[in-house]
Amino acid sequence: MVIDTKKCVGCMDCVVACKTENDIPEGHNRDWIVTITNGKYPDLNLEIQSQRCNHCDNTPCVACCPTGASHINEVGAVVLVTHSMCIGCKACIAACPYSARFIHPDGYADKCTFCIHRVENGKLPACVNVCPTHCMHFGDFDDPNSEVSRLISSRKNHPLIPEAGTSPRIFYLA
Amino acid sequence: MHEITTTRNNPEIDPFLAVWKWEIPVYLFIGGMVAGMMIIAGYFLFKEKHKNSDSIANYIPLISIILLSLGMGALFLDLGHKLFVWRLYTTFKILSPMSWGAWILILVYPVILANMLMVPPSFILKRFQQIKMITKYINERPRLIQNIGIGNMLFGGILGIYTGVLLSTMGSRPLWNSSILWVLFLISGLSTAAAFVHMIAKNVNERELLAKADNGFLIIELIVILLMLIGLASSSQAQIQAASLLLGGPYTAPFWVFVVGIGIIIPLIIQLLAVNHKIKHTAVAPIMVIAGGLILRFVIVSAGQYSHYLYSYFR
Predict the structure, then answer these.
(1) Nearest to A68 among B3, B85, B93 (CB)
(2) Which end of chain A has fewer CB atoms at under 10 Å, N or C?
(3) Domain B23-313: top CATH class
């Protein structure tokens, strides 16, 4: 996923779409908006980021899972949790440097799935689909001709907390 | 100006991670103490000190089993999806310390049980007469007893190390991500076990030996704590921030007052005076050591969850 911070206005449509699409319980979020202000007045820089699980290449949450509930799906390298295998030990939550997971009120670890149920049917994730400024782009980084590959090769970008060594796969266009 | 605001407010995640509450520190503390008790009992068996009928090697296995079961009970209470706990034993994940731990706990029980069967508690003997045959079989074989001792030391060591490795493999939590954490937890487990066993030991020689051993463990623990903090404080930014939680940050007072002061230094002074026969052995120092060991787990688990990578947001 690639998110253009120059276009994101922090309207939270992505957050609402995710909650609706995935029936996220009240008080919990799979995605959220972070606003970062840097600099010294009057030279301030504002960046708005729509954040969620980074579906890392190097997944500490999958590695630490004692039951195999946390896993990478076979098709699209999306990090998922099989609810019926999760014991709710919270190791994956502690292992995630982005704190992108939480315990669902039903007891299992929950997180963004990139709306895999939609993607498998040829649709975009709900958050990407509803974005009114079209700041979010979803695609295959393995395909050099995909929109996401072209965007990160043509524009300045950064992932979140690269120093944690998880090789996150959401890039923010600066 | 560096300012970050977020709309996320997930329970137990925000404003800082607090998913592991009292259950995990209690489990890590009990696991460490049982590990220490296994190592101590194993050493006494290996050295054939169990031949004294009042040797602690003859009665701490029962306490170990009860404590370990309580620890596992705490671990179970922590689970969010309790009915699925059996899933732990349908697989083995080599990269998951928690999976290792689940299987280690299963292996630890028979090793402690083997020790217990040498001198089974009378209430068990009354109900299960057949155990007498096993007891007789074990006690007729000194080499087997030594091997049970080695098994207890080995699995006790693995259990004690695992309690630290469980946390230290989490690279996302800079305070835990120290390669020396397992040494700290193992030594703390040994010192709390020595303190506990010293407190309940009937044999005077064993009590004296355990007090001396505990002094050694406490000195090593102090050194390991200092090395861990030096290691963190001289590492990268995230680790420096993590160390600062204990060096001026919100966990400074509980760590230095309760863990280092009341849990290590004061009991060390008391026990040094006691082993040099300046004062009598009392339960005061061991209780302080045990309390310090428990608070150590609480501080490390809590501060470790608090520690995080954040600075890179400020680009």
Answers:
(1) B93
(2) C
(3) mainly alpha
